[in-house]
Amino acid sequence: MNGKNKKILLIVKKIFTKHKLNSNHARISANAIINAELVGAHSHGLSRLKMYCDRIKKKVINPNPKIKIKKISQSISQIDANNSIGFVAADIGIKQAIKNAKKTGIGLVGIKNSGHYGLSGYYAEQAVKKNLIVFCFTNAPPAIAPHGAKKSLFGTNPICFGTPTSSKIPFILDTSVSVINRGKIRVAAKNGKKLPKGVALDKFGKPTTDAKKALTGVQLPIASFRGSGLAWMVDILSGVFTGGNHGGKVKDPFDDFSGPQNIGHLFFVMKPNLFVGNYNERIKQNIKRIKRLPKTKGVKEILYPGQNKQRRYKKNLNKKINITANISEDLKKLNA
Amino acid sequence: MNGKNKKILLIVKKIFTKHKLNSNHARISANAIINAELVGAHSHGLSRLKMYCDRIKKKVINPNPKIKIKKISQSISQIDANNSIGFVAADIGIKQAIKNAKKTGIGLVGIKNSGHYGLSGYYAEQAVKKNLIVFCFTNAPPAIAPHGAKKSLFGTNPICFGTPTSSKIPFILDTSVSVINRGKIRVAAKNGKKLPKGVALDKFGKPTTDAKKALTGVQLPIASFRGSGLAWMVDILSGVFTGGNHGGKVKDPFDDFSGPQNIGHLFFVMKPNLFVGNYNERIKQNIKRIKRLPKTKGVKEILYPGQNKQRRYKKNLNKKINITANISEDLKKLNA
After folding, report:
1. Which are the contacts of A220, defined by CB distance < 8 A and separation ≥ 6?
2. Is the minimum CB–CB distance between A299 and chain B shorter than 8 Å?
3. Cys bridge to A166: A230, A267, A280, A317, which one at CB 3.0-4.6 A?
């Protein structure tokens, strides 16, 4: 990271410390936010900083949580995050899942009483860098209407899967089950930009390309009943199963300060060589076969999930993070 | 099941016995095929019987396999199915995963050297009926083009997830990651019916609604790069990870008799009460909240995945299975 971005990182850390996070938690949270900027996920980066601080001030994020880790078995752990900032709960959770998997081959960690943790791929990457296969599930505030309903209930509920590739660039699939993610709609609304067709309905159930109307309306799941089923699955795994909120009860972090979010996360981690001795060789072969397929017109290279993000990251690492006027104002006020 | 369907079941069992499957393997396979008919998945039912028998005759399914179960840990098992008929490998696999989960909370079973096992949901249901949460992954012969490619490589690679619901009807999401499943295209081709738009490309990479052209062309994944990523994930989990074929190497069971399929399956099973004491109460609440949402025009009830199938099953249970002319001929020839 270049000096300018390091400076921004330190400012964010300082802001979190001012908001009563301890130095370690502030570091974890600042790193996650700056990483989102560097991978180009601006909707999960600095634009959320004010929201996190507001939630701390209004006591719906606990800056000084007593996080409990309960051992269920050598492989399975449960974490009660005591309404910590989501970044910290997820950081502890993925590290525990990695530890369990290194010991027994598989690690399963359920987290409750957490909050929005940013990008699933950020945690998946931690496991993959330790040469592990990983699933991360989390739910989120209502954004998608279940198939047949005209009201949002599911979050954009990402499915995130990661695996080592034998190269330095991990395979990280981190896909929301909405046609486009809510963060992008939020950014479009802020910048007054139109949405593509087929992405959202307004609050009356009518198709819309107006980002602001989409935010108060309904996002559409990918592939109708299939995407709706996948969103439901993620709600069950991360909410019903872990002890987190579920079934539309996760509060919107931007709009609803009436209590903590109590989001649930589920991390599942496996050693790649459980069944084969040469996983790295096999995955290398797999990727090679797919990359050498004949391409459709205009496509230069078939990319695996995560490759594009890694390229953006590398490119952005030595550029200064773009600080918009809104964010600049946020930083000044929060740092005052 | 009524007497007429029981008679068909016995004929199918007898056909498998004639093809050198032992009585137990013939029973398992016949049950799976008849179940597919009863849930209305005709593309996975009797229309495949001849294919299975052909593969046995041509020695690419082993009627007398030495199936090895290797214990990796209390939770993890590996199965080498020795090119058994897929139904048998999957039946042994799910039972082992259930056993492991009952003992330790989680069961992970990787299966290699297997073949097409029919419907994932059929095995998921076995776990759910034992009050367990379950994932089933399997790969399949090339049908879907990776995002950016104009040649098929991924199978329709279903994602299957099941959970108890506290009612008699389990939640079983069993969704291929192609817009429509290959079996349906096969049936449309047999019956000379057109496909909807946006489902497939012909072998030259041009959109087509001709089912026969689609079979030699390319199926499209749901949600473009998202669906392509999910298909890739399933190929990695069920092929690369387990020791099965992957990266487009699974042979088409109908067209390619040059060797066994060596499909891989991965089953992952969990106790629902690992993190909460009242899972059944929680999932009941979850479903209730979703079902009472306001519905879009024309929708009478919001259904969870698996409900529709269960209704078809109940309705079909006392009707005679529809034996088409083609299938009637197959049955006669195979039973001769």
Report:
1. A144, A145, A178, A179, A198, A199, A200, A201
2. yes
3. A280
